[in-house]
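Objective 1b: paired records.
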Amino acid sequence: MANKYITVAGAGSKDGSSWANAYDSASLEAALEGPSAGEYCYIDQGTYTIASDMTFDLQSGAIILATNDTANAIPTVLGTATIDGSGTAGVDIVIRGSAMVRGIIFKSGGSASAANITLSNDADTVSMFRNCTFNIVNSSGSSRCYIGSSGADRIEVETIGCTFLFGTTTQYISLNSRWTSIGDAFASSGSVPATLVGILARQPEMRFFGADMGALSGTLVTASGSARAYAELYGCKLHASVTIFNPASLGRGDVYLYDCDSGDVHYKFAHYNPCGSTVVSTSVYITADGATYDGTNRYSWLVSSTSLARPANPYKSPWVPVYRGTTGSVTPRLECLRKGSTTRYKDMQVWAEWLYQGTSGFPLAVYDNDRDAVMNPTGSDQAASSLTASDWTGEDGSSNDFFKLGPSGAITVQEIGTLAMRVCIAAASVTDVYVDPKIRV
């Protein structure tokens, strides 16, 4: 392997062939672009100053590692190195290619001029960054950290243990690709952006695992322009007042949260899209045998709609699944509470949809719903529940309505497998429907 070596001052012949002949900082681009697939560039700790735009076209399969061990040809200790453009206004940094980069602090140009950091803006690439820092040093509100490109397709980026820092509140991450973030920290120092991820083009996907977003009190994800976003968050720390998703209009995508919170609260779940949301309520629930998130503590889903929800484009909650290990006739239902009103919702306003193994000989699910069959604009009252206020905790005194969603009669399960139900809301601006996310039969 023809590994490359670089130190700030360089050494010997400065051809990068060894530590004794290391490239110097003036040859930074050649050093990082030199290794081919399976080869390494070892970059010694220190600050590598750049005074103009720099694009690093890394070769596919190359590995770039920062280290503080120049005594060994294969370093035994890793470290950090800084590629610093902050001393010059407007310096952009672009890192391209299907390579892995570890331990480098990237600083864009300083002052008030716009300067960006871009990760992987060329098509058909898969890039990985570990323990790196992406620091937009300047104070220009036009500066961005771009992940992917609005003009290129099939880009995947993974960041592990990285830090994203910003110079002013109007900067953000512009996502145009598939991005997996694992154990990253956002705005842990410096300015806190009003929006973390802005989507202006393409249909990007993002998945955050163990992200520290506790400083972000604004909006996590927004979608505008021609974009549609899809996001999942797992085990992330959030700010208590954060807005999860701020889509500009219909069709802007979905955001799911799993076990994410601002405090020591576990098992939280949520879903957001332009037509509504589903969030966990631990203050309203069926008292005796309601759903639990840990076998003991009970909860419900608060399913709400926005002003965009209509019969033609209702909000649809996530599916509630249950495994059926037996076949035969069942009548599944979801128990619901309308809190603060005794008026029953109509079956053209709120209804359920369900899937079940209703086909013999194949795992072909059968779909059905309890929406008004002829889609009568007025509809009919949903079915009354046998439960009352005494069965719920957190209901609104005497101002409640208890109803159930599901088939009016038995359905026949032909094969073992999953039975799933979800709640749909076509009425606009509904904020009072609590659902016990436990399918009862």
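Objective 1b, second protein:
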Amino acid sequence: MREYIDVLGSGAVVLGHEIVCDGFHRERTVRVQTHVHDDHMGDFNTSKGFQDLLMSEETRALLIAEFNADLLVRENLYAVPPRTRHRADNCHVTLIPSGHMLGAVQVLVEMPDGPRLGYSGDFHWPLELDDVIQCDALVVDSTYGSPESVREYSQEEAETRFLELAYAKLKAGPIHVHAHRGTIQRALQLLACNVNVPILCSDRLSKEVQVYQRFAAAIGSVIPLGTAGAKAAISNGRYIQLYSKGDRFPIGVSSGVAITLSAYMARRDDPVLEYSPRAYRVALSNHADFLGTLEYVQATGANFVITDNTRTHGVELANAIQRRLGIEARPSSNFRSHEWGT
């Protein structure tokens, strides 16, 4: 099994002889796209010309909304229903939702000679146990793989604190909220259900919101910037503006309060960090923390684990998996070679 899985220096994950996830490898005929975050989109245009691309229907829709171009009519781009075995050359691929963002999946590859190979992708925890891939060898995300990355509060508590902060600061003027894709839509879901003010965003982000609504996400409506409704809200001075990929988040806002939603470098004991009365960070995250990552690894049943060392903390996580769980683990090799397409 050990020779079947690894992570390349580009961040691409190889599973068996045919499959590569979130990157290009010239000897692999199939690419699985786990989700649309930029750090998982490496060499996507190259893959379009040389590989079959497998992904969830939601990821396909988000990519079409962002890039448009030829994705809608490409015959080598396949939307795979969740939890169904899809034949890919000499193996079977199953995509299972990971809870990270709309369309994000874990990947299970069943080899013809028996081994089951898994890749966590980016994942939220806890998942329902039925939604955890069951595999013999696993590549696991290490974003929060450090023992220091433990949160002593739930994400429900972080959401409540975010809403309380929004309520309080709206009395003084507009709120500017910045977050990665997935997290910004989660913030919109919270705000639209609980705060009765106009919510503004860029036209690009508005198109993403429409995709979320198409797939029955309980998410509120937004007003694109530049429209009459947005201009009226800005003139009134009481509104919330959302910023995500491609949007320029102001270094300093001229009025109101700026809130960044990220668990990066967050405190263990408090989800809210106050920089000043007009600038905050709230530890809203769609990533499992350190303890959640260990629980996930154990739930997969894997007896060999490679930690993704291209996204920090791979060595620390591998050591913890061996020491705390008694499972053989090592950090990824991050091998780089022109022969491997990296």
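Residues 337-342 have pLDDT under 50 and may be disordered. The chain has two domains: 5-148+289-340, 155-282.
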